[in-house]
Every structure is written in structure tokens, then in C-alpha cells.
Fold:
Amino acid sequence: MSEATGGIEMEENTSGKVKKFLYVNRRAPYGTIYALESLEVVLITAAFDQDVSLAFLEDGVYQVVKGQHTKGIDVKNFSPTYRALEGYDIEKLYVEKESMETRGLKESDFIVPVKVLSAQEMADLMLTQDVILSF
Amino acid sequence: MMKFGILVNEGPYTHQASDTAYLFAKAAIEKGHKIHRVFFYHDGVYNSSRLTEPPTDDRHIVNRWQKLGKDHHIDLVVCVAAALRRGIKDENLLEGFRISGLGQLVESGIQSDRLVVFGD
Amino acid sequence: MLHTVNKSPTERNSLESCFKYLKKGSVVLLIEDGVYGALKGCTTTKMVEQTLKSFPIYALYPDIEARGMQDRVIDGIKLVDYSGFVDLVAEHTTVQAWL
Structure:
């Protein structure tokens, strides 16, 4: 990951609070930077020991498909980072079922283990979160 | 009285995000709330450039943020990673903004009562 | 939860998506180009009117007025200014932006 994401800065004050942060990903990778830069926030949030979940909806499901080879477009392939999330104790990755199916994808197409939720279940999950970030 | 965190994901003029965020912040202050921090991410970092020269008959988005920050002691933070990617550095940063890490966004999410996102 | 939608439903599917995730207590606020979702006589009007039966929908009036759409707002959509926007954020424990 980027060297500029840096470590925890001494000036930050979180008072030991733990909040549930949900990152909602609705965009495909590479066409825009949102997928990459939102992942950078996810990593920092884990460094703050917060309770992190990632939701992949609509074209966001494309972020976690296997087989991304980016040499031809000369852009850094950041998909391996999703596999590294586990090392940061980020294991709550959710894919919305209809988004996956309407794009002809199944669970085995993904680079990381995900939990597939229906839109209703995803909506229920969203209600449990303290902070929802969209990029 | 609530403490709001604001995330601005887009740069000035191209998208309305920065305008809406500003007008929201202004309204929140007028209602007696506090703005904990405005964090600029993605192209939002361009809201801090001291080099913008918009036409004089339209709003000056960058200066407007500076003034709001100064008048109401708001922490205007530009993400270092996003800034470096886009060529925003201390030497072209407008006074009143500061460059810092993503930890400041996370902290704002933790410390604020509400975190509101403005983007494309 | 407060859901904000800032893109037109004929440009992007954000409004339609947002509607899929509404649950009891959800409220929708249309801002920026999202206010085009508040209009009568569009292909999206029926979908919005249907949702309005179960969920309050608000639209940011300054954005409606800026776009000259003042006389076209669906009956039942509540208009707010930025002060009202702030109140909606304060009243709901979380806010989710559908970009």
C-alpha cells in the first residue's frame, strides 16, 4: 500500500472509543480511483482498532474478482490488498446477492472470502453501523 | 448542539460537492452546531490550492473555505496521500488548510456525532 | 437512517439503489442533481411515488430552484433548505450518501 498512508499520528484522540465503520463500495476498479483510495481508508480505520465492515454493491462487486492483471493498462494492481485485509483483522466483507448475480458472478469468482447478503440483509447490516462512508 | 464531521471527495467547480458541503457547514454553524473537521479526500484536496483564480463574478470556493475555517475555528484537513498523488503540497497549500494523514478522517468519524459525505 | 442522493435517476442508478435499502425509519433527501428524482412526469416518477407511500422523501429546495424545477415537484415530497438538511442529519443517528 501507499507509503504516504502513514502510521497513527500522536495528535489523534479517539478516547478508546470503538465505532462500527461501514465502507460502501459501489464502483468498479480502475475506471476511477475511488476503489483504491477507499481501501486506503479501510486500512487506517483498522489501525485505529475500529470495527470495520466492507459492503460491495452494484459495480463494487467487481473490485474483488480474481484474475486482475493490470500490466496492459500500466496501473498498479491493488486487488491483492483485499487478501491482506485479514492480516489487519478485517474479515467482514459483504457482497450483495443481486449485484453479484446480475453481473454473472458467483462466490468462487472472488479473490477473498465474502459473505453474500440479500439487499434486505444488507439494509439490516447498514442499520447497525455508526459511521457509513461512501466514495 | 452536535459535532459534525464533513468529508469532501471532489474538487472545486467540477462537482457541486464542495459547494453543498460548504453551505451545509455554514447552516450547521448558524444553528449552533460545531464542525469538528472538514476532511478533503480524492480530488477534494484541490479545494486547498492557493493557486486557483476563478472568475471574479462567481464564488471563490477555496477562499470561502478558508474564511469559514478561520471565522469558526474549523480544522480543514487535506489528505497527504491523495494530495501527493495530485501535486498538492505545503508550497501550494492555502493558509488555513493543513496536510495530514487519513487518521484524521477516522478520528473525525469517531469523535463527531455525525459524519456527512459529499462526493460525486 | 438518513439517505442522501445527489445524482439524477436518469444519469445513474443511485436513487433506485438507495430505495432497495430503505428500512423502517429511513428517510431520503435528494440534493444537487438528485433533485431531478423529485419531479412529476418522468419515467422515474412512478418509482418515487411508490416509495413515497412508505418513506418520507425530502428535496433540497435551493437545488430545485437553481434548476428551474419549482413547479414540477411530486406532491408529498417535502422541501427543505440547508437548515432543514442540517436538522435531518441531526435527527437521524447515521447518514448514508448514495453518490
User: Anything to note?
Assistant: Strands of chain B lie at 3-8, 34-40, 75-79, 97-100, 114-118. Chain B has one domain: 3-118. Chain B touches chain C through 22 residues (CB under 8 Å).
